[in-house]
Amino acid sequence: MKATRRAALSEDERLDTLGRLLTDPDIPKNLRVAGVVVLLYAQPLTRIVRLTVDDVVHDGEAVLLMLGEPASPIPEPAASLLLDHIADRDHMNTATNQASPWLFPGRRAGQPFRPDHLSALLNGIGVPVAAARGAAIRQQLLEMPAPVVADALGYHDKTTTRLLNETGGTWSRYAAGNHTRAPAGWVPRRTGDR
After folding, report:
1. CA 159, CA 165: separation in Å to the nearest integer?
2. Which among 55, 57, 5, 15 is positioned nearest to 35, based on CA atoms?
3. pLDDT band for position 153 (50/70/90)?
4. Strands, E, within the chain: which ranges?
5. Using CA atoms, how far apart are residues 6 and 98, in angstroms rounded to an integer?
6. Closest CA relative to residue 133, chosen from 123, 145, 124
7. How many CA atoms lie within 13 A of 111 on its CB side?
8. Can you tell me the distance from the alpha carbon of 151 to that of 153, in angstroms, rounded to the nearest whole number?
9. Tens digit of pLDDT for each residue in 53-62?
10. Angstrom distance (rounded) from CA 80 to CA 99
11. CA nearest 84: which of 53, 126, 108?
12. pLDDT by residue (tens digit) across 35-44?
């Protein structure tokens, strides 16, 4: 039997799933947080399970997640859900895991959650990971230029450019790079020059 890959979620499906994860207290908190990161930031599970509590920056006002440069802001109510999860992570009560830095600690001391196990659990609560990632990255690309999305989410710029072309996005003429610097060899004209 040939494995088939599900198409990306529609934007309505993505938002409905996101809303359910943000509000349903019957879903385990770690699954809600992991699903939110997939649905908002199009992160692969192999990367999500490698996140540490130090990758979450809380400066008193904003909550940021270090996925790329710059860090990505986490909107409410996702920010509160993430902070609640950090305060009450699973598998922290064993003597060998009490100082675990992982955002999603695994059952084995010093190890993060396994991505294949997390994938099965997310699929079990109605979050098709590959389809959710596809929908999230496409939505990001409709809102921002591909190089900006690549930097912010830790993707390669060729990947985001290819996905942008597939989605028919409108950012095709955006020039990547630091736009605050003058081009090499450029010298500003002095007032008296003509």
Report:
1. 10
2. 15
3. confident
4. 56-58, 63-65, 72-73
5. 39
6. 123
7. 7
8. 6
9. 999 999 888 9
10. 22
11. 53
12. 999 999 999 9
Q: Which of 82, 70, 7 is nearest to 37 (CA)?
A: 82
Classify residue 55 as left (phi > 0), alpha (psi -120 to 50) or beta: alpha
Q: How far apart are CA 20 and CA 100, in angstroms?
A: 29
Tokens of 68: 């790329």
- The residue whose two tokens read 């490698």 is 50
Question: At residue 29, does pLDDT exceed 90?
Answer: yes
Beta bridge partner(s), residue 72 = 65
For residue 189, the SS3 value is coil
Please give the structure tokens belonging to residue 81: 């859900």
Query: How long, in residues, is the chain?
Result: 194
pTM: 0.77
Burial class (CB in 10 A: 0-12, 13-18, 19+), 68: middle
User: In 128-164, which positions are buried (b, 16+ CB within 10 angstroms) versus exposed (e)?
Assistant: bbbbbbbbbbbbbbeebbbbbbbbbbbbeeeebbebb
Residue whose pair of structure tokens reads 């109605």 in the numeric block: 126
